Amino acid sequence: MIKTTLDAALTLGRRSGIFLLILGILSVAMPWATGLALEMLLGILLLCAGVAQLFFAFRTRELSGFPLRLVFGLLTSFAGLYLLFNPTAGVVAITLILGIYFLIDGLATLLASFQYRAQRNWLMMFANGAVTLALAAVILWQWPASGRYVIGILVGIKLIMMGLMMITTAGMVSAAKDRMDAVRAQQRADGAKVVDGEDRTLDP
Predict the structure, then answer these.
(1) CB 91 within 8 Å of CB 36
(2) Is the N or the C terminus of the chain less surrounded, counting Cβ atoms within 10 Å?
(3) What is the Cα–Cα distance from 57 to 67, expressed in whole angstroms?
(4) What 8-state DSSP symbol labels residue 148?
């Protein structure tokens, strides 16, 4: 049962890594389309969140704090509508947010890589953090001009790095599992030889 679960997890890890790798390549190939898609997705999410906040506000209007809930719902809804009807401005704003996110994520990944130096794939994790920090520097240094072309390329590179890391990690775990299975099979074979030898010594 444990072996089947591990095999399924490794297969899922490889497939997820390949999927992220393909998405990264497509994102690099079509950076402007990727930026617009991310901006539209964020706009839809904000609009849905705003509508949900407004619905909750009116359902609880008898409780205290109704004006504040109403204002939050309206602001979130207007933010979503603004992103949907002004995609260029939305991409520029997302670029800034993405740069800050990459900065935090890169620092966290670098710190984590030093904590896992005993693992064989810590260099891949270190490289992932270094590349992420470099992406953050490019975004923030060239912002807001970077919004038109950089966001799709940077997201694509990040997805490619994540995909490669998942594929290599799954491969390393699979190789370790195969070595453990080989050792266990050898131990069983040696044990069978010992038992067989003992049985022969008992024969008259």
Answers:
(1) yes
(2) C
(3) 8
(4) G
